[in-house]
Amino acid sequence: MAGAKQTSAVSTQMFALRRYIAAAASFTLALNILMLVSPLHMIQVYDRVLTSGSVDSLLLITLLATALLGVYAIADAGRKRVFTLLGTRFFRRVEQGLFARAMRSADPGREVPAAVGDLATVQKFIAGGGAAPFFDAPYAPLFAALLFFVHPVMGAVGLTGAFVLIGLAVASEVTTRTGTAEIGRKESSAQVFLAGLSRQANAVLSMGMVGRAFQRWQTLVQEGHDGQLVVGERSAVLAAASRGLRQILQVLMLSVGAYYTLRHEVSPGAIIASSIILSRALGPVDHIVGAWPQIVRVREAWAGLTRRLPEGALDRTESLPLPRPEARLTLEGVAIATPGTSEALVGRMSLTLEPGSLMVVVGPSGSGKTSLLQTLSGAWAPMTGTVRLGGSHLHAWDADDRGAHVGYMPQDVELLPGKVWENITRFQPAEPPQIHDAAEKAHCADAIVRLPQGYDTLVGPGGAHISAGQKQGIGLARALFGTPALILLDEPTAHLDLARATGVRKLLESLKTEAHVVVVASHDLRLLEIADYVMSLNAGQATVSTGKDFMKEVVNLRRTRPTPVYATETES
Q: What is the tens place of the pLDDT at every residue in 249-299?
């Protein structure tokens, strides 16, 4: 229906866990009913036992109250367990789809930590019982109504206090909503900046930027702390006012009860009972006011999840894995743009690369070479057009299934924390001969065996130092693992010495004979000389020529210009 409010995938997943919510609501009902045990016991002791002097009656009602309070403890433990299960189940239902969508975003470096952080915030709030006061709040009017049965004036005192506490909750919303959201954004910026520093630690150290980098990070952190201070002060004042008001109401309730007891309008036991009932009536509202900054953060996190996961985003349909595709790459009217932008980086193009084809992509910096490889790998969707691998729509293909047939090595290789062999196999089980074969093809096997634990060497935080050339070799082996039909390499000879760069050339020649489709972004003349096709990107346009024709053009240009236009012979 037009104009109807759209639901989100997170709401759908929470609704799917409604049995846990129903269980929590059932335990809450039991808890609030059993909360009446203490005031009723108090009334019986004061109004019956003390007047009758019956020890048997005292023993009976005490045993009964003890048994019921034991049930209360069981119900309380049960509700906490349900909240823990609800938070855990919700996290497991959402985490994989949320992570996958964040990885495909235009800025995964910022989006992934933010998305995972939002999910963790919601999960901890639910599992920690942060929602319990909201489950208890509907019973507050019941307890307030019970005060009217004791005496109308005492009920009026309780009702007035409840309205004042609700007013404090509204004040908390008004004074902390904007500030808490802004704090979250500033803290996120500080975390992203710190993560960038850790990745560029060597450059920061070598160029004497430690002090300035620390000052910049400290400024970002301090902005968040300043905001926390302001919001914390406001929240503390309101929370203190709420607690103080509760104490005042307790005193007023005892005083009013005593007054009407002196007038013989209520019993002595009703004085203490009314104070306990008042505490139960105001307790949930008081807890909500005290935790309001946290509640605002959870609400912002929920809104972030809702934005990232629209309805249907987490629908999982089991698809039959497709057979290994024929190594034929087809581009049908494909235009390329950076995710999140509406302007084409490379205009529409159409071409077909048959099995055994090697195409080298050249062009000035920023012309779209890496973006082209990102699109052909399936990581980015094309702006227009269709990419097919062996006839299958590359971007409609399930990513996990498609990835087994695509090998991609980015220009800046990053290894995931784990063992070297795990990085080569893409963290999937594999037989040693498969691992060794990929490393041999990438000409990095000798370098790997010289590492402290060879293929079992840990990389990442706490692991062994891996040079740029070693990363390049391992990244190339990862791209070649499993003999993918489509192999995409971004500057594969960067960081390599002459011998290993020559090895890459021999590798590409062998891949052609093995009927792979290989697309390489490079300016290395040794690779251009063996290319079947060369795609030149310039000013948003793609021009494709045969390798022989392109090399003739390069030779002609070199005769008239001292520096090659498209390629250099400089060794990396």
A: 878 888 888 888 888 888 777 777 888 888 888 888 778 777 777 888 888
For CA atoms 260, 263, 268, 270, the dihedral sign is negative
53, two tokens: 């002097």
* Structure tokens that stand for 511 in this block: 């891949």
Q: With b meaning 16 or more CB within 10 Å and e meaning fewer, what string describes 30-39?
A: bbbebbbbbb
CA distance 408 to 100: 18
* Dist CA 114 CA 302 (whole Å): 12
Q: How confident is the model at residue 19 (pLDDT cuts 50, 70, 90)?
A: very high
Within 10 angstroms of residue 147's Cβ, the number of other Cβ atoms is 23
- Rounded to whole angstroms, what are the CA distances from 426 to 99, 194, 283, 362? 17, 27, 53, 28
131-290 domain in CATH 1.20.1560.10?
A: yes
Assign 171 to helix, strand or coil. helix
Q: Which residue, among 278, 32, 290, has the nearest Cα to 136 in the 3D structure?
A: 32
Q: CA dist 427 to 416, 417, 424, 519, Å? A: 9, 10, 8, 24
Q: Give the contacts of 545 (CB within 8 A, at least 6 positions apart).
A: 533, 534, 536, 553
The full 3-state SS of 450-514, as one line of letters, equals CCCCHHHCEECCCCCCCCHHHHHHHHHHHHHCCCCCEEEEECCCCCCCHHHHHHHHHHHHHHHHC
Q: How do the domains of the chain map onto residue ranges?
A: 7-130, 131-290, 329-560
Q: How far is CA 151 from CA 154, 259, 260, 264, 278, in A?
A: 5, 11, 9, 12, 13
Element (H, E) at 459: strand 458-459
The answer to whether the pTM exceeds 0.70 is yes
Cβ–Cβ < 8 Å for 253, 155: no
Q: Which two tokens stand for residue 334?
A: 């494909």
Contacts of 15 (CB under 8 A, 6+ apart): none
Tokens of 260: 């009407």
**Domain 329-560: which CATH number of 3.40.50.300, 3.20.20.380, 3.30.930.10, 1.20.1300.10:** 3.40.50.300
Q: How far apart are CA 281 and CA 145, in angstroms?
A: 9
3-state secondary structure of 489: strand
Give first-to-last CA distance, the chain, whole Å.
Answer: 60
Question: pLDDT category, 56, cuts 50, 70, 90?
Answer: confident
131-290 and 329-560 agree in CATH topology: no
Instruction: Return the number of other C-beta atoms located less than 10 Å from residue 98's C-beta.
Output: 24
190-249 pLDDT, tens digit each: 776 776 666 666 666 666 767 777 777 777 777 766 666 766 676 677 777 777 777 888
Q: Which residue's entry shows tokens 């009932």?
A: 277
Burial of 167 (0-12, 13-18, 19+ CB in 10 A): exposed
Residue 326 near residue 391, CB atoms below 8 Å: yes
DSSP string, 375-428: HHHTSS--SEEEEEETTEETTTS-HHHHHTTEEEE-SS--PPSEEHHHHHTTSS
For residue 202, what pLDDT is reported?
62
The kind and range of the H/E element at 331 are: strand 329-336
